[in-house]
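Subgroup meeting minutes
Present: P.N., E.W., G.H.
Scribe: E.W.

1. P.N. recapped why we're keeping a running log of single-chain structure predictions: easier to compare across weeks, and new members can see raw inputs and outputs side by side.
2. G.H. added today's entry (144 aa).
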Amino acid sequence: MEWKSLARYHDLGLLVLRVGFGVGFIWYHGWGKLIGGPERWAGVGAAMGSVGLEMAPVVFGLVAALAETVGALCIVLGLFFRPAAFLLAFVMFVATVNHHVTGEGTPAHSFKNIWVFVGLMALGPGRYSVDHILQRRQESVEAP
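Output recorded in log:
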């Protein structure tokens, strides 16, 4: 089989990855934290203590919950894709460090997610994304 022939499905593969990973991230990580309210946000935000920031755990928890929900939705849509992937990689970095420092849970899942988001940052959202549509519109407006 000629593997190079599959290159034509690159953008479709990115779409499948974005939608599957993003929806799973919202469902299994973000949404429960987001609707958990200030008490849940404080618990999530306390993880910032593992990287030396112990102030405002409710605020940091809300930011993490928003990143894992709205940021993952941006991954699904391919909107503000690279900033969203960067923010989610950072949230996963904090989660990984927190698991190591506290000994609670395993850092394996969050560690793997860091690299998925870093890889997605490098690849971009692909042709089937809102970012691509906006870029094409911008280019057509700028063209003489």
